[in-house]
Amino acid sequence: MGALGNGTRGLAGGTDLVPLLRDGLVAADRLVDLRRVIPSGIDGTAIGAGTTLAELEADPQIPDALREACRLAASPQLRNMGTIGGNLLQATRCWYWRLNYPCRLHGGDVCHAREGQHREHAIFANDYCASAHPSDVAAALLALDATVETTRAAGPLAGLYRLPDDHDRNLVDLGADELITRIHYERPEQSVYLKAMDRKRWAFALVGVAAARYDDGVRLGLAGVAPIPWRLASLDDLEQATPLPGTAYKLELARALGRRAIAAVGG
Amino acid sequence: MLHAAVVRSPHAHARVRALDLSRAREAPGVRAVLAPGDCDALDETAEFEGRAVVAVAAETFGQARAAAELVEVEWEELEPLLDPEEAVRRGSLVGEPRRYERGGYERGLAEADAVVEAEYRTQTLNHNPLETHQCVCEWRGDGLDVYISTQYIWGVRDDVAAAFGLPPDKVRVICEYMGGGFGAKNGAGGYVTLAAELARRSGRPVRLALTRREENVGGGNRNATIQRVTAAAKADGTLTALGGEFICSLGWGGWLASTAGPMQLLHACENVRTVEYGAKLNLPAMAAFRAPGFVEGTWALECLLDKLAAELGLDPLELRRRNYANVDTMDGRPYSAKELLECYRRAEPHWERRHEVRARSDATWKRGVGLASQIWYGGGGPPSYAWVRVGSDGRANVVTAMQDIGTGTRTAMAQIAAEELGIRLERVQVQVGDSSRGPFASISGGSSTLPSMGPAVRAAAADAARQILEIAEQRFEREDGTLSLRGGEIVSPDGTTWPLEEITGLLEDGQILGKGARGPNPAGMRVLTFGVQVAEVAVDVETGEVVVERIYAVHDVGRVINPLGARSQIEGGIIQAMGHTFSEARLDDPHRGTVLTKTLDAYKLPTIADVPEIVCELIDKPDAQLTNLGSKGLGEPPIIPTAAAIANAIRDATGADVTSLPITREEILAALREARERERVGAPSA
Ligand SMILES: Cc1cc2nc3c(=O)[nH]c(=O)nc-3n(C[C@H](O)[C@H](O)[C@H](O)COP(=O)(O)OP(=O)(O)OC[C@H]3O[C@@H](n4cnc5c(N)ncnc54)[C@H](O)[C@@H]3O)c2cc1C
Ligand code: SF4
After folding, report:
1. Quick check: A99 and B666 CB within 8 A?
2. Contact B175, B149 (CB under 8 A)
3. How far is Cα B305 from Cα B317, in angstroms, rounded to an integer?
4. Average pLDDT along chain A
5. Atom from ligand 2 closest to the CA of residue A131
6. Which strand (E) or helix (H) includes residue A215?
7. Burial of A244 by CB count in 10 Å (0-12 exposed, 13-18 middle, 19+ buried)?
8. Calpha distance B573→A143 (Å, rounded)
9. Domain residue ranges of chain A, discontinuous segments joined by +
10. What distance in angstroms lies between residue A54's CA and the mean position of ligand 1's atoms?
């Protein structure tokens, strides 16, 4: 594992990394197969980072929010290969970034999306980079109060992500040679994940809302609304959103799905 | 075989300032490099993204790509023209504006009891066939073989021959099977010229296949439209005027498909005025796409008609019936056949379901039903030829240099020959796909393959049958014209039968050769196809999600040859329309004019989960005036009315007026908000 970094990348299911390598968005001299070193499988409320989305969606122990998030993600083929660890670390789907425009996230000094085509982009924290985080799984795990265990430390899932700035364009706070090993969640009394898409399946969330009810209230996690998975203390926080002209509809979606999700968990 | 890669302009409008090919030429595996000046398909000025600048052929595709990346191009970027209305103002047009008028439009407006106006928009759509545009070119002496994925073998032959100054028959074009075209593969295109030139220079066969990204930029598209339309009618629903201004964003070329066509042809109306503009923009050129123009135009017209029905308080189906055209609306010619009234009649019970469907609404999911009507060409025409060869074993071989673009044409041709020869389908073989091994055949566009080729095959089979029967009549000493072929036998009116092989067997190595040509369409008549679709939808009024629960489709295309194949065309058309209605859109950067949806995760084709229950019906009544077959084409009709039927169902369910395709969440949420607003303002104060 010490070999990671310096041109060596870890490959789990490869569903995101392989296209990134092919498109020249990530460079690697060597790939290390993480599936041999990373735990996989479900043990109570601990999930090995190498567990596939397909395994998670099928396991009745897994809270509904996470199962639904997995079931509504990608396609069956991708879910059979894609791991939960890789899902949390998938790169943005921003079309400018994927087509290698020299935007802020690539180290440049403009956000092409803000001025350009951004209907799939963010409504929160979109000032510097307006990309929208694509992970349904991360939204569910935020609501489930997950912690992430790595080869170095353990901490809340929210701490895995950061907003980019001029000094650091990364959206993830993880050392080059650091690996996610396990994810732990808190078992909720009830949970749900709702997702709005452009088509019925195989599309990233325009907005995804996870809600989980605990003794002390309902926790909410959102996909597709900010450059990183986004937590809301309550739906009132939606008033703080800063939608772009082309993303105002997402606020309406977030409100509707949020209300529905809270009602669904009896909150 | 070598593989080619193409260096293309990343800019919508730019000029090459400097070009350095030295590193590319020396790259491993490179066998030929073409630059502007070497080939017409390359240019130093790019008027749209994806314009080819340099082409490379190498031993492997990887090597060709690597070499292409070593080509150094210094671009001078120029301001792109991207706004279609600005293009119209500036007179940047492909061709002249097309104006049409009949009757007195202003008078029609003045006579009306109700006038409705609206602006409808449609998006740019990519064909995205599973198989991208591709070919292999190989020179054999002074002739050229082109293996290609095409909808028109003979068009490719002529295009390539013209590009290289060859006699047409020096070019042999082969297309055995192909993975979809939808109108984007009607001719050769610059990529074939590049492959052929690379092959000429390297002396090796060269394969050039567009990547998915190239396909999504330069593979052709259904152009976006802005349609400002007006409909006027008397209180009883009689249309008094139809008018429209149609701005079509063609890109840097292509042609102006008839977006006004449905308005001019579908409903009876004496006073019609339309003007169509083909905006020339710094964007990739449009290409024909499954009923080009009519898909876009029918969306606007049929939505507008429902708006008019609402204004008049009339039933939308009744409104259409009251404006039924009994003769051609443009020139008064009789139709060769028209069963649209019968389509309306058969649609009636499906339309009636709306009461029950609406009743299943609840607080969040509102349900409704909508319909739309459809008109299109699809009569085919001459020339097209076929040969039918019957061997001594009594088996038949249909030979014609047409292409089967995945619509089951081979099967249909075998059915036609089998019927005419009175033999079982399994005893007929069909050979298509090679310009040097069969006579000229029609393009597979405009729903014309079956109505153009079918009659030629039937005529060829009839010619072969006649020859067989002549021999039989001599052999069995029967009067001329008394015998016939049925059930694999030669049949006499007195009940005597002989196995077909008894005559064909006499031939030994000889063969019966039948020849057939497609005759003309009926003089003085209009040949068109018709249909109606009824959509049932459920709309989540809080999230804007739309579920299309059922689509009923009834189409009139004359005689149906293969019911299963016909059904597939209807289902395929409706499924493609689901994408056009809800999820597909080419998105361009609004400042740069570059395409952002180049891959299939960003350009969202419909998935099987998006497909509604589809109930199809065909009138299946031969068009007695049309050819020896009575069949019209069905490739395009089914995709035409779907979007409007769905939008009309959404209006029925929610009162929301969607006016732009695709019907995204933002589109429908905005329409729902406006509908609520109207209701609030319009509601009588209690
Ligand atoms: C077409 C398409 C549609 C999709 N739709 C959705 C969707 O709707 N919703 C959704 O949530 N996701 C979606 N995805 C994302 C998909 O779920 C992820 O690609 C997948 O889960 C990633 O897992 P993987 O094992 O294949 O990761 P890989 O591709 O192998 O790796 C991704 C990244 O994570 C790193 N990595 C992987 N595992 C670890 C680890 N344990 N520790 C440290 N680093 C690691 C890799 O080095 C790499 O940088 C889609 C993907 C595609 C291609
Ligand atoms: S949204 Fe972020 S990734 Fe996309 S263009 Fe802007 S800076 Fe780049």
Report:
1. no
2. yes
3. 10
4. 97
5. 1
6. none
7. middle
8. 42
9. 8-97+123-264
10. 13
Instruction: Give the tens place of pLDDT for each residue, A181-232.
Output: 999 999 999 999 999 999 999 999 999 999 999 999 999 999 999 999 999 9
Q: Which of A96, A249, A259 sits opposite B666 (nearest CB)?
A: A249
Residue type, A229: P
- pLDDT, one tens digit per residue, over A55-74 is 999 999 999 999 999 999 99
Q: Can you read off the two tokens belonging to residue B663?
A: 């019907």
Q: How far apart are CA A48 and CA A39, in angstroms?
A: 5
CB contact (8 A) between residue A119 and residue B664: yes
- Strands, E assignment, A75-130: none
Chain A residue with minimum CA distance to B586: A117
Instruction: Name the fold adopted by A8-97+123-264.
Output: 3.30.465
Q: In chain A, which ranges are E strands?
A: 8-11, 30-33, 42-43, 46-48, 147-150, 154-156, 180-184, 190-196, 207-214, 217-223, 230-232
C-alpha distances in angstroms, B232 versus B108, B305, B306, B326? 7, 9, 12, 20
In three-state secondary structure terms, A39 is coil
Rounded to a whole number, what is the distance in Å from the CA of B580 to chain A's nearest CA? Answer: 11
CB contact under 8 A, A119 and B606: no
Q: Which two three-digit tokens encode residue B551?
A: 């689509």
User: What are the phi and psi torsion angles at A139 (to 5°)?
Assistant: -60, -45
Residues of A in contact with B609 (CB under 8 A): 199-202
Q: Is B114 helix (H, G, I), strand (E, B) or coil?
A: strand
Average pLDDT, chain B: 97
Question: Which of the residues A117, A118, A201, A250 would you substitute to probe the B interface, choosing the one with the greatest number of B C-beta atoms within 10 Å?
Answer: A117
Residue (of B422, B352, B416, B423) closest to B386 by Cα position = B416
Dist. CA B630–CA B632, nearest whole Å:
7
A118 contact residues in B (CB cutoff 8 A):
none
Compute the nearest-CA separation of B542 from chain A (Å).
Answer: 6
CA nearest to B371, candidates B523, B500, B513, B552: B552
**Interface pTM (ipTM) of the complex?**
0.97
Residue B626 near residue B336, CB atoms below 8 Å: yes
Distance separating alpha carbons of residues B36 and B21, to the nearest angstrom: 11
Separation of A114 CA from ligand 2 center, angstroms? 8
Q: B30: part of which helix (H) or strand (E)?
A: strand B30-34
Strands (E), B487-559: 489-491, 497-499, 512-517, 529-540, 546-556
* pLDDT category of residue A99 using cuts at 50, 70 and 90: very high
Asked if the peptide bond before residue B383 counts as cis, ω within 30 degrees of 0, the response is yes
Tell me the whole-structure pTM to 2 decimals. Answer: 0.97
Res B686 pLDDT > 80: no
CA of A121 to the centre of ligand 2 (A): 9
Q: Which domains can be identified in chain B, with CATH numbers?
A: 1-79 (3.90.1170.50), 221-378+524-682 (3.30.365.10), 385-517 (3.30.365.10)
B600 interfacial to chain A (CB closer than 8 Å):
no
Please name which ligand lies nearest the alpha carbon of A73. Answer: 1
Q: What is the model's pLDDT at position B681?
A: 86
Please give the distance, rounded to the nearest whole angstrom, from the Cα atom of residue B573 to the centre of ligand 2: 37
- What is the identity of the amino acid at B239? L
pLDDT, residue A6, reads: 78
Prior bond to B638 cis, omega within 30? Answer: no
Amino acid at position A165, single letter: D
Residue B431 DSSP class? E
Q: Residue B603's closest CA among B219, B196, B110, B32?
A: B219
d(CA B402, CA B154): 8
| Chain centroid offset of residue B254 CA | 15
Q: Cα separation of B94 and B279, whole Å?
A: 6
